[in-house]
Design brief:
By secondary structure, the protein is of the alpha+beta class. It has helices at 12-21, 54-64, 68-71, 73-76, 88-102; strands at residues 44-51, 115-120, 129-141, 148-158, 164-175.
């Protein structure tokens, strides 16, 4: 179904069904397990994702990054990559999901003011399993808002062959632990 501007619109029943089955939306209160103080400099976490499929690569790219080497396996063979590769933004998105599942949805997160130094080191291909290593490289209380702090994480992402495919630095803002 399309609207008057020609944009694809999902039926309300599909939207509602998806909304109801999303385990992260909700009315239930989540118990916060992690506050700013739980992210000391030097702390490291590692997370592993499932293997990426060709279909996932093409579906993501078809919506968000439709360059031919992401959406057309035959034409991609003629590219400098020699085959279909995932969008770098998909790689970042997969890692964001790993972070959410590992701890962020249980943290007193206030969002992020941004990321910097995003580097795609190697192409990600169908069959690759991504492993994210996150290290806290800076953690400082806000000087203007004492109820929160800013944490800078170093993201290093590897495939199943331990080849680095991505690195970046990303900020997270977290509430401070309430006084007991």
């Amino acid at each position: 179904m399309r609207d008057c501007a020609g944009r694809l619109r999902l039926p309300a029943s599909v939207i509602i069904s998806t909304f109801r089955t999303n385990p992260y939306r909700g009315t239930a209160t989540v118990t916060v397990q992690y506050y700013f103080e739980d992210f000391p400099v030097g702390m490291t976490r590692e997370m592993q994702g499932p293997a990426l499929t060709e279909t996932e690569i093409m579906e993501f790219a078809g919506k968000y990054d439709p360059q031919y080497f992401h959406v057309d396996p035959e034409r991609a063979k003629e590219s400098i990559y020699g085959g279909l590769i995932a969008s770098g933004w998909q790689t970042v998105g997969i890692c964001m999901r790993l972070v959410c599942d590992a701890y962020l949805l249980k943290a007193a997160s206030l969002g992020s003011p941004g990321v910097k130094d995003v580097n795609w080191r190697r192409p990600v291909r169908a069959g690759d399993r991504l492993r994210l290593k996150m290290t806290v490289i800076e953690s400082k209380p806000s000087q203007s808002k004492p109820d929160r702090g800013l944490v800078l994480h170093r993201w290093e992402v590897f495939n199943q062959r331990d080849e680095q495919v991505l690195d970046m630095n990303g900020y997270g803002m977290y509430s401070r632990r309430p006084a007991s």
